[in-house]
Design brief:
Layout: H1 9-22, H2 25-28, E1 35-38, E2 42-45, H3 50-60, E3 64-67, H4 75-87, E4 90-93, H5 104-116, E5 121-124, H6 131-142, H7 147-151, H8 168-179, H9 186-192, H10 196-202, H11 207-216
Parallel strand pairs: 2-5, 3-4, 3-5
Antiparallel strand pairs: 1-2
Helix pairs in contact: 1-4, 3-4, 5-6
């Protein structure tokens, strides 16, 4: 668990070791899982290295970095926060869960952030598969898209396994489509009707898919 200072050479080396080895960042040096969500406004990826964040900031004119992992004591977090500061990006912590039913309060907080953020913005979780997919799907709905469009943000293309415990995120969008889409605006449904405990209780994951996702791939 990294708790050092990345402004010193020793601390920066320690942060890189923690990021690459303990946080599985070695895979993210060659795989970015990057995609556009809302043209010219919102992008998604896995936890970016400082160099990749700088390259994306230059290419897309980024102004905001949204951390979907929440504040963490790890080298990856320390390095990306430092990089955001150096690049002049606003850094926002917006933690989501990947294996629990989305929390009403967090959805509404994300909408408040989304409505007020400096754009273009880039959001990331660890692998860019589950929490980034949830947030991207929410953004699609915020922009007036359909639940079907939102579900496309949770796919194999991003490394998302809908038969594992992370499939509860898919179930959230399916629930909205079945319960209220076309009859009630998404945010009104979230505020007034959505029951996260009932959704979680009704969802059943496949054991093998969960083992692959949680143990073999060691996803958060």
């Amino acid at each position: 668990m990294f708790e050092g200072d990345v402004t010193t050479p020793h601390g920066r080396r320690a942060a890189w070791l923690d990021s690459l080895l303990l946080d599985h960042g070695v895979f993210r040096t060659v795989w970015g899982n990057f995609a556009e969500v809302v043209p010219g406004k919102l992008y998604r990826c896995n936890h970016p290295t400082p160099g990749r964040l700088a390259a994306l900031a230059r290419r897309y004119g980024l102004r905001t970095l949204i951390n979907l992992r929440g504040e963490r004591r790890c080298g990856s977090d320390a390095l990306s926060r430092d990089a955001a500061t150096r690049l002049g990006l606003e850094h926002v912590d917006m933690a989501f869960e990947s294996r629990g039913a989305p929390h009403r309060a967090r959805i509404l907080r994300f909408h408040a952030i989304y409505s007020d953020m400096a754009v273009p913005a880039l959001m990331h979780c660890k692998s860019g598969a589950d929490r980034a997919g949830l947030a991207a799907g929410l953004a699609v709905l915020f922009e007036g898209g359909s639940a079907r469009d939102a579900l496309r943000q949770l796919s194999w293309r991003f490394g998302h396994f809908n038969r594992s415990r992370t499939g509860v995120l898919d179930a959230f969008f399916v629930l909205y489509a079945e319960a209220a889409e076309g009859r009630k605006p998404f945010l009104d449904w979230v505020r007034e009707d959505y029951d996260e405990r009932r959704l979680l209780a009704s969802f059943r994951a496949h054991g093998l898919a969960s083992f692959l996702n949680d143990v073999v791939l060691a996803r958060e």
